[in-house]
Amino acid sequence: MPNYNTQVPPYSIFPGDVALAFNSEAPAAGQASQQFALPSYAGFPENGRTIRWQTLFGSAPSAVSIVLQTALNDVDAQYATIDTSAATTGESRTVTGVRANFVRAKVSSITGGSGVVVQILG
């Protein structure tokens, strides 16, 4: 379940924007962030867009798995994992060729640590 109320319509991420999926929070395993729309824009390439995302921690967990998920429709069951971060010290990752209308982060598992931050860069 999301940490946040689902907003209709969801906030949009345009190229150059930074969206905070989690902002120094303590999500439990299985919790998803608020979803963000990936709007189409003039010049959108046929082979998809590039999404950069970053994980940070106030104090490092001993084990963690955070996934980046996308969907064509904003329906929980339609979100699919496109990338995974398991770095307990945080990391920046890039996914190319993304063809989706919505994006979110989800904590698959976490042991210890605090202050989870996940930034999604449009």
Plain-language structure description:
With 122 residues, the chain is an all-beta fold. The protein has one domain: Sandwich (Jelly Rolls), CATH 2.60.120. The chain contains no helices and eight strands. It has a four-stranded antiparallel beta sheet with strand order 1-8-3-6, with no helix packed on it. It is globular. The two termini are 23 Å apart. The mean pLDDT is 89.
Give the SSE map.
Elements (H helix, E strand, L loop, with lengths): L17 E8 L10 E2 L11 E11 L3 E9 L8 E6 L5 E8 L3 E10 L2 E8 L1
Antiparallel strand pairs: 1-8, 2-7, 3-6, 3-8, 4-5, 4-7
Short précis:
With 122 residues, this protein is mainly β. Helix content is 0%, strand content 51%.
Write out key terms for the chains shown.
51% strand; mainly beta; 122 residues; globular; four-stranded antiparallel β-sheet; 0% helix; Jelly Rolls; 8 strands
